[in-house]
Amino acid sequence: MRYALAVARAGHFGRAAEACAVSQPALSQQILALEQICGTALFDRGKAGVRLTPFGREFVALAEASVEAADKLNNFALGHGGRPDRPLRFGLIPTVAPYLLPKIFPALIADLPDMRFAISESRTETLLDGLEDGSIDIALIATEPPRTGPRLVSAPLFEDAFVLATQRGEASADPVSLTQIPPERILLLDEGHCFRDQAISACRLDDDRNSRTFAATSLSTIVQFVANGQGVTLLPEIAIDKEGSDPRIAIHRLDDPSAGRQLRLVWREATPYGRIFQQIAEIVRTTQHVESGEPA
Predict the structure, then answer these.
(1) What's the CATH number where 8 sits?
(2) What pLDDT does 171 receive?
(3) Per-residue pLDDT reduced to its tens digit, 122-151
(4) Reduced to 3 states, what is the DSSP secondary structure of residue 89?
(5) Which of 20, 55, 78 is the last residue of a domain?
(6) What integer pLDDT is reported at residue 296 of this predicted model?
(7) How many domains does the chain have?
(8) Domain range enclosing 197
(9) Contact indicator for 203, 183 with CB cutoff of 8 Å
């Protein structure tokens, strides 16, 4: 049922398999087995994607209620002590994981020695889907949680300001005004990354996909293009130590103090682990304050 719900949300077997952290053949086999049990197809498969059949729509509506009830019962049974007896499934977005995780993970292990963690990295949409279908327990994201779907608890962590990365030697007086940068010089992540949307908003760009021939899958890739003089880019402040270490790169502060994002932890309200999740949020805040030299 979880696999069927994932396919219904994604409209695509490959993306559903990614969200469920299984191979596509394994997911497809389980869907076929489910359809054999039901005696009819749940999905219409076509070149344009996957759509629910009329029977499939009714099945998914019932399956959602069944899975949610099963999750509540499972959480009640396993969480009576306030801690899971399995690894805590912790997801982070790609523009946070490589920069923040090396700092906070040792602190989590030190402060919560009896906890085990299963760490994953996915885009915001996939993490929110994981919270909804129960495949992850807690997510670190950089956007407001949606108002649709299951009720989520949001614990703000800290503000992550944006900076401008240019090739060293490129004329630019600090603080930099983003409105003075030619839009065609600004390199962005590809679609689906919330940081791309935030950069477009901060730079007041039109998201004209046809006019942008460059889109990278990681900030590290973009920084290499910047280092070679092929454009400029925004970076989150937490990425400076790693991405700004290249001697060919110069980091510039911005004249707009609102250019940035707020990182937050989110989890389902209907969980028995809320207290431990709040503790994790406080560990992240404290660790970041120590690293940045700010007062806790």
Answers:
(1) 1.10.10.10
(2) 65
(3) 999 999 989 988 889 999 999 988 776 678
(4) strand
(5) 78
(6) 47
(7) 3
(8) 159-260
(9) yes
